[in-house]
Each structure stands twice: as structure tokens, then as C-alpha cells.
Design brief:
Layout: H1 7-16, H2 36-43, H3 47-54, H4 59-70, H5 81-94, H6 97-108
Helix pairs in contact: 3-5, 4-6, 5-6
Length: about 120
């Protein structure tokens, strides 16, 4: 379920990808509707770069991303498996093992958690 990025979303996106000039996907020409996919697919050079970037997030930002993943508004559909694994590991270590399990279930169930 796509969303319009609000100020909080944009601030997180810009923190993870300060080089993000506008909020438009260069491939499709459409506005970004999520945070993690553009960081992974447009701005990170590789999996290690993605892991470094998401490591910049504070606990509150990670918790927020977990909530929007859980409610189905943050897409994980086009993230490489290594980037999902890096995100889940970070959530496990900095938020909780339970939150990491919810993110994993969301990814495995088609990118939305059971409600």
C-alpha cells in the first residue's frame, strides 16, 4: 500500500541518502513511496554501503520503520535479500528480537505483517 512520504519520512530518507536531490525514482519517474527501497536500489553502492547507511538510524527511527513495515505502508518488495538481512539484524540488535521477527514475517508473507 503506497504512501506519500511525509516530513518525517523525507528526513529519514535524506539522513540515509543525503545525495537524494528530489524524491523521484530515476527509473520510473514516479515519486518514492517508501524509504528503504530507494536507499537500497538507488543510493547504496552495495550491501555493505546499505548496512552502513541504515546504521545511522537511531532507535526511534528504526522503531518507526518497523511500524510502517508492520502496517504494510513501507515496501520491502524490491530489496535484495542481503539488505533485508542487514536491516533485520540491526532491528534485532537495536530494537528487539520480536520486532526483527515481525519484519521477517512481513517480508516472507508478501511484505505485510498479519494484523
Amino acid at each position: 500500500m503506497p504512501r506519500e512520504l511525509d516530513e518525517r519520512d523525507i528526513a529519514i530518507l535524506k539522513k540515509l541518502a543525503p545525495e537524494c536531490g528530489d524524491l523521484t525514482c530515476s527509473g520510473s519517474g514516479h515519486l518514492f513511496h517508501s524509504i528503504l527501497p530507494p536507499v537500497s536500489n538507488h543510493f547504496s553502492g552495495d550491501g555493505a554501503d546499505f548496512a552502513r547507511r541504515i546504521g545511522l538510524l537511531n532507535t526511534e527511527e528504526l522503531e518507526y520503520l518497523c511500524r510502517v513495515i508492520e502496517d504494510g505502508t513501507e515496501s520491502m518488495g524490491c530489496l535484495p535479500v542481503e539488505d533485508i538481512e542487514a536491516f533485520v539484524a540491526l532491528v534485532h540488535d537495536r530494537v528487539s528480537p520480536e520486532a526483527a521477527q515481525k519484519v521477517t514475517r512481513a517480508y516472507e508473507s508478501g511484505y505485510e505483517c498479519e494484523r
